[in-house]
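Encode chain A's predicted structure.
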Amino acid sequence: MINNVSKGTGNDLVVITEGALITALAMVLSFIPHSTGVSAVEFSYGLIPMSIFALRRGLKPGLMAGLVWGILDLVIRGFSSGGFLNPLQGFVEYPVAFGVVGLIGLGSVQVKRSIEQGNNALGLIIFYSAIGFFAKYFFHFIAGGIYWGSYAPKGMNPWIYSFAINGGSFIANMIMLLVLAVLLNKIFKRLIMVKN
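Encoded structure for chain A:
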């Protein structure tokens, strides 16, 4: 009984440590210039390590890592860059929007099973990553329509503007993931699988 508890605690510590490292990596990647050239449509490079971590460790660790990433991004970049307008907007666009990236972890078991069986898991990786990416940009879309409407071009509906910006960011990040997942397919598989 004690051995099992110790083993579980040790494993939890490994997952927490991995989550902390992935969160730090995602945060560091946020400082790389990531504009697409289209106003406010941006790549979020931290989504790639977050995808791998959520598929590797599952839903709960993925959600927790995303939540911590969102809080860090709010404190380190949001307050200083003008990305924080008020507490509700800050809550929706940082802890919530970043946290739901962890929904990618819904596919952890299925993706690992597919890899273990020697099947091509690329489609599953893309599908579950799309769930997390979509959830993130859905919350940005909602906040954009409500809070960022004054930044829309004159005469443009703020919801259409938010849809264009956040939909464009979702598509840009899905393309980035697709290209990396295809080019680095074998590496992705090795990173997702947990060695005992």
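The helical segments are 2-29, 47-57, 59-81, 87-99, 108-116, 122-147, 158-183, 185-192.
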